[in-house]
Amino acid sequence: MATIYYDQDADPSVIKARNVAVIGYGSQGHAHALNLKESGVDVVVGLREGSSSWAEAEQAGLTVMTPARAAGEANVVMLLVPDQHMGDLYKAEIANNLDAGDALFFAHGFNIHFEAIEPPPDVDVVMVAPKGPGHLVRRTYTEASGVPCLLAVHQDATGNAHSLGLSYAWAIGGTRAGVLETTFKEETETDLFGEQVILCGGVSALIKASFDTLVDAGYQAESAYFETLHELKLIVDLLYEGGLSYMRYSVSDTAEYGDYTRGPRIVTDETRAQMKEILAEIQSGKFATEWLAEARKGAPYLLEQRAADRHLPIERVGAELRDMMPFLTPKTPPE
């Protein structure tokens, strides 16, 4: 059985006795920093000089300084910058500012598991990973709720790493929803697998292929958009609320029969074989090596694909339709 912790299992005084530096002020960074502050924790934000987020963090009432200074003044350092930049940032600004007994925190195990960061042996290394985007971590906290978190200890130099991690999870609202104990290895490998096979890669590929199939067959692009992308949220909400059985209970018998009889023709033995191959690439470190090499080159393939997909017909049609939906506030990513 999995071990799950809640508010009553955490000691808030542990994190309140520490000085925390949150390095980064993006989706997760802003949520962690603000939640920590409002939980009574002494927190500063570490940002590079000239960062566009500097003024934003100060306007939120937070103290901002460079990552090196923030790490030097804190004894808990939470790294919340993109995976591909974290190793270089750590070497340049964090490593020399860690003292024995300090704690190095992560919200994803990538850089520790694949050894892009090798902490000294005299610091605690802990992961507190919210299972949701930063805006949700922040919003649910303000609503007296929270987002479930994962907790893992990679290195327990002080003997207090676990209690410190659980206390940190309390301070960002995680113990209100539940904190699942795991390992850096398990979190990293399952997270990458989920992103690639279903949550991002698999879903995106299915949406694009099913949209193209309908349009190529002569159906209106607008009808295809509603069927292959727009309605997906309705199904995901049902899955989120009650799993596969509740979703199937909620849809029509026709839809449920089609689910059982046609779904396996989409996810075939060949698809499952590819899933196993992708998992093997994650476990071996092949994907991490590939991605970090791509990032060192400036991520040309990533940028090329990002630009190309923004001009897909489903994106154009979707933008036009979302502008007509009064219940939505359409979102457009920056160029």
Topology record:
Blueprint: E1 4-5, H1 12-16, E2 19-23, H2 27-38, E3 42-46, H3 54-59, E4 63-65, H4 67-73, E5 76-79, H5 83-94, E6 103-106, H6 110-113, E7 124-130, H7 134-142, E8 149-155, H8 161-171, H9 174-177, E9 179-181, H10 184-199, H11 201-216, H12 221-230, H13 232-250, H14 253-266, H15 269-284, H16 286-296, H17 300-309, H18 313-322
Parallel strand pairs: 2-3, 2-5, 3-4, 5-6, 6-7, 8-9
Antiparallel strand pairs: 1-9, 7-8
Helix pairs in contact: 2-7, 4-5, 10-11, 10-15, 11-12, 12-18
Q: Major sheet: order of its strands? A: 1-9-8-7-6-5-2-3-4
Low-confidence stretches are: none
Kindly state the percentage of residues in helix: 55-70%
Q: Give the DSSP E fraction (strand runs of 2 or more residues).
A: 5-15%
Instruction: Label the overall shape.
Output: globular
How many extended strands?
9
Largest beta sheet, briefly?
A: 9 strands, mixed
**Rg on CA atoms, Å:** 22 Å
Computed structural class: alpha/beta
> Tally the helices: what do you get?
18
Determine the N-to-C terminus distance.
45 Å
Query: What letter string, H or E per element, gives the SSE order?
Result: EHEHEHEHEHEHEHEHHEHHHHHHHHH
| Mean pLDDT rating | 97
Architecture overview:
- The chain is of the alpha/beta class and 335 residues long.
- Helix content is 57%, strand content 12%.
- It has a nine-stranded mixed β-sheet with strand order 1-9-8-7-6-5-2-3-4, sandwiched between helices.
- β5, α5 and β6 (103-106) form a beta-alpha-beta unit.
- α4 (67-73) crosses α5, α11 (201-216) packs antiparallel against α12 and α12 (221-230) packs across α18 (313-322).
- The longest helix has 19 residues, at 232-250.
- The model has no long low-confidence stretch (mean pLDDT 97).
